[in-house]
Amino acid sequence: MAEQLVAAGPAAAALSDFPGWMASQQRRVFLLCLRMLGDPDDADTATQDVFLKAYRSFEKQDGEIDDLTRWVTRIAVNTCLDKLRSRRWQFWRKRPNQEDEEVILAMAPSTGPDAEDKLYAQQIGARLRTAMERLSERQRAVFTLRHFEDLSLDEIATLLGLDVGTVKAHLARALAKMREDLLDLYEARRG
Amino acid sequence: MKAEKQVINQPGSGHWSEARMLDHLYGLDTPADLNERHLAECPDCAPRWTALTARRAKIVAGAYAAREDRLRAQRAAIFDRIERPSRRGLWSLVPAAATALLLVTGVALQTPAPAPQPQTVAVVSQSDRELFREVAALMEEDVPRATDPFNSLFETSNSLEVQ
Would an 8 Å CB–CB cutoff place A164 in contact with chain B? Predict the structure, then answer.
């Protein structure tokens, strides 16, 4: 099956088995959207938009796609950036309610050996989300792709259509802000 | 512990500070800063670097889990949105059809432009000019033109008398 998919070309193969391809990417794309948007409902909508765009693109056979994973990641990042920009005008937005917070916390790693580790992980997760809200859209995108997706700076630059120097600048500022926001938590942990 | 931390973060100590390790982890250090050999060999820095990269690898390896019911609901919504346009059928053409209808109606309601005025004006002007010329000519003549038939009678008689 995998060989057949490769021989048919990535996009054609994905279209012929769209549910299977989508299932292989969905979790990663959803988590990427969640980290960038910080809101589960927005991340749901964004994930749906991403795969709908992918499906439409496969149907139209828009150009050649060499790397489907990178291609769909780019769609996800751009979709999230659009949503973040449109949020600027939504002054009525409130912070996620408690139910949403629990959903977000459920995304945090829960494989710590003891209760203290679990609690610490949850605290880190909550503080990380708050700190990421302080980042600009570009800084958030770059940080998410580097920290969570483990892409290299060159890959991030290609994906976002920026030069490497700009990516570095965004990342440096993002890290500086994050460290400033998380310093007390980190130092408390280290004692 | 605090004393160790002070030594490690002391400039010129040769040890890598937390900030420097983070920069290196995220690829922000310059080639001149690179001294990965120290990270591998220093008894203080090596374990700290190992712990940092291990924590990072754990995150990247997918320690985060998304609830399956949420993902299932997303998939259902995605397939619903994919199928939705085919159910709409011709309704998707309504906005375009409405716009076209408005344009056609607007064009059809436009009355033809009235006949150009200059032609009528030219005829009037021409007849006016002729009238003015005739009047001027009449005023210049000593004898009215209307008397021409009678004059012709008299002219013939005069020529006979001379002989």
Answer: no
Q: How far, CA to CA in Å, does B45 sit from each of A13, B18, B20?
A: 48, 10, 11
Question: How much of chain A is helix, strand and coil, in % rounded to 5?
Answer: 80, 0, 20
Which of A29, A48, A72, A154 to mutate to probe the B interface, most B CBs <10 Å? A48
Give the whole-angstrom CA distance, residue B21 versus residue A78: 30
Task: Tell me the C-alpha distance between A174 and A33, whole Å.
Answer: 18
Q: What is the CATH number of domain A108-191?
A: 1.10.10.10
Q: How far is it, in rounded angstroms, from Cα A154 to Cα A147? A: 14
The per-type count for chain B, helices as H runs and strands as E runs, is: 8, 0
Interface contact B84, partner A, CB < 8 A: no
Where do the structural domains in chain A lie, given as residue ranges?
1-92, 108-191
Instruction: Give the chain B residue whose CA is nearest to the CA of A21.
Output: B75
Cβ–Cβ under 8 Å, residues A152 and B27: yes
CA dist B27 and A146 (Å) reads 9
Block means of pLDDT (10 residues each) for chain B, length 163 residues? Answer: 50 76 80 72 90 73 66 92 69 74 83 61 65 74 65 56 42
Q: Alpha carbon B8 to chain centroid distance? A: 58
Provide CATH code, domain A1-92: 1.10.1740.10
Q: Does B23 touch chain A (CB under 8 A)?
A: yes
pLDDT exceeding 70 applies to what percent of chain A?
71
In chain A, which residues have their Cβ closer than 8 Å to the Cβ of B75? 19, 22-23, 26
- On chain B, the residues whose CB falls within 8 A of the CB of A111 are 63
Q: Assign A61 to helix, strand or coil.
A: coil
Contact (CB<8Å) B75/A23: yes
List all residues 6 or more positions away from A37 whose beta carbon is below 8 Å from its beta carbon: A43, A46, A80, A83, A84
Structure tokens at A159: 């994906």
